[in-house]
Amino acid sequence: MKLKYIFVLLTSALFMGCNLEELPEATTSKGPIFGSESGLVLYTNSFYTMFNGKNLHRADAMSDYLARRDSPPFITEGNFSAQISSGWTWNDLRNINYFIQNCNDPRVPATVRNNYLGIAKFFRAWFYFDKVKRFGDVPWIGKPLDVTDTELLFKGRDPRTMVMDSVLADLDFACQNIITGSEPSRSLVTKYVAYAFKARVALHEGTFRKYHTNLGLQATASGLLNQAVVAAKKVMDESGYKLYDGAGIDKSYRQVFINGAPIATEVMLSAVCDLALNNLNDANWYWTSGTYGDKASFIRSFINTYLNIDGTPFTNNPAYKTMLFKDEVKGRDKRLAQTIRAGDYKRVNAGVLVPSPPLFSYTFTGYMPIKWALDDMYYDTRDLNINSVSIFRYAEVLLAYAEAKAELGTLTDADWALTIGALRKRAGITGGLTTKPTVVDKYLQTTYFPAITDPVLLEVRRERGIELCLEGFRFDDIVRWKRGELMQMEWNGMYVPELNKPMDLNEDGILDVAFYKTLPTKVPGVTYVEVSPSIGGKPNSQLISGDTSGELTWLNNIPRKWAERNYYYPIPTGDLITNPKLTQNPGW
Prior knowledge:
mainly alpha; signal; cell outer membrane; three-stranded antiparallel sheet; membrane; 36% helix; RagB/SusD family nutrient uptake outer membrane protein; TPR-like_helical_dom_sf
């Protein structure tokens, strides 16, 4: 890892000193890099900054299942436009294309060159996949541009089909030519990471074309879904990865996200933190602060989708709507208590374990995430976290395989046991692990996917939401499934049975929180949260759904609105002025 960071620093210094975009074409200027494997390593390591891996723990900040301190501008009417849009940047592509064009020095064996070309094409696919998800049609540029390339510099956008065919071609090359199948640090792209990425891309594009019928590309969806199946199965059959279960059902899932070193059995690629190099992340600061970050909290509608430990839907119990927090977190999928503060969750304060129920100075709904946050309060201020952040892990591959086969209608009981069943088994669930479901969960269908009648596909989507929550997939999933309306869901929270009465959220005998409209006599140690309709003449964003009892609600006085145009971001106005041939996305 230290060697990798030294390479990156050296590469940055070299590029700043030489101005890569204006290197002369003379062989002597390229030789130090392209004439040796060490030079190719140094160059390709410069691509890894594209992952922005240390921030992935907060990549779901705009999603349907998180309430936060403010409504995201993108889905708040009148708060987003082409004037403030971003993301239309191309510097990384120029760097990648320059490498691809010049990685041809015969002094380096062809298999070695092709290995690093495969890595470069992996990153070009990464670059373009991100652009297509954000903007739809984009210009495909397959060479490093010069100031004289005016035709390419000012070309219009290429069709989505052409760009995604090129992305998949790049990934095919990467899969076939990257030599390394595994490496111990889990910080470098390998052959099986490339296959996992191909499964991710093909699944996304296949389902996007299936559900976005306005594109007229439904006929091409099954071919892409089949590619996702083949790529995922390659990883499943050959890579040697498996789900980590070394800490037992109460800890294994979360351990993947709080471990310092990547858990190599399951994590395929990670942003590795290193205290000695001061390469750290801010997960605790983001997730355990009342002032920093988004103060993001899960909504109750999503928490309701966690199954009972026997594999039955929690919402089959008619009393679920008025169940107290201390009761609703019992007897559930073990991932629930490894994702939010619940039950006997404790933290370390100056070396002492202390009970740590949901803290209402840090949460709006009561469902306070712990998936990425370390238990020691030492890490709660500034960017001090030493836990690695996974970019690819084996669980996603299993879900891609299951979803693609479910969409194709070819998922068998054996496939189910190998994928969804295996994930649920690690989570302690005891029922429904070996055979596909045959009954639709009405709550899941009505609340999330009313157009889906296949119980298998519904359960695969449930599993994806739970297993991959807070890992940066949710917004993209909503977009590809064409379920943008979910972004308008009410931000609801735990059930409050009555006002003014302090509640013990974790049954440790200590009263934690009370909700009031008229401030009662305070009980020492209790957090009091006002749910009056207005405070100081202004509407209060923290309310309850009924007059004297009901679910907590947060910020529903500011409507979130999803329109057809929100399936793409607008191209920034400045870029349209520079190149009018790009044309703006519809509705913007």
